[in-house]
Amino acid sequence: MDLPLNALRAFEVSARHLSFTRAAQELNLTQTAVSQHVKNLEQRLGKPLFRRVPRGLTLTDEGMALLPTLVDAFSRVSATLESFKGAHRREVLSVGAVGTFAVGWLLPRLRDFQARHPFVELRLFTHNNRIDLAAEGLDCAIRFGDGQWPGLQTRHLLDAPLAPVCAPALAHRIRTTDDLRRETLLRSYRTDEWTQWFEAAGGHCPLLTGPTFDASLVLADAAAQGAGVALLPVALFDRDLQSGRLVRLFDVQVDVGSYWLTRLKTRRKTTAMKAFQDWIEAPHPASRPG
């Protein structure tokens, strides 16, 4: 069967990303051109390779059968060509990450990953835990929660218990948990966090009237500027605590979730994905304040 190479390549890249948009970026083509290549291939094969769903793409059985063969074939061709010029093949890796994890854990260690895996061209997209890997064309994503997300393979990365923090100007007047009742308690979109913390501290949560934030980074900044007391995953704000920008008030902390590395179960793991998973799961020294 005579099949056009451009169409096969367009399918292979689209299938890896499960996104025509991401494929177009990698191939330096328009999204329309990539979609047309794939459509032509499907017409020649007489089989659909993708299911077009409202927020992205999924592979059909035929697509899943074809993808590993093409990935292997294109990888072999690329490796041979790169060997001619003595260079290592670069591979794009698109990673989504909760902003708090990205700033508090990933960025301080990013130079180490780049040094260990120079062939990976990392593209980092931050989010506030609301994400669709298929629709956004991500290879993997770091999320916060209980690790139970339908259709996703999850790997536990980091526990992140919450503790109350505030600006130094407020900390001097807060000695007991009862003192918190006179302060503005800043809230995240997870509405029961303060209730759980007060239960862990052996008290009752007061009526909450403080502002609500959709991102821990903004919540932390509000606390640092004296807007009130925030519950934050202190392990990811170590630099702010060491620098004195934020002050931890009590030893009591509460677990409401962990950080997880996730990927679609239908997504074939690439060399770059494996390298990133192995690296992020390995022991890492604590980041230094900076």
Structure described in brief:
By secondary structure, the protein is of the alpha/beta class. The chain is about 40% helix and about 20% strand.
Share of helix among residues? 40-55%
Shape: elongated
Q: Would you identify the CATH architecture of the largest domain?
A: 3-Layer(aba) Sandwich
Counted up, domains total 3
Question: What do these coordinates show?
Answer:
This protein is of the alpha/beta class and 290 residues long. It is built from eleven helices and twelve strands. The strands form four sheets. A five-stranded mixed sheet has the order 4-3-5-12-6, with helices on one face. A three-stranded antiparallel sheet has the order 10-7-11, sandwiched between helices. Strands 1-2 form a two-stranded antiparallel sheet. Helix 1 crosses helix 2 and helix 2 packs across helix 3. The longest helix has 24 residues.
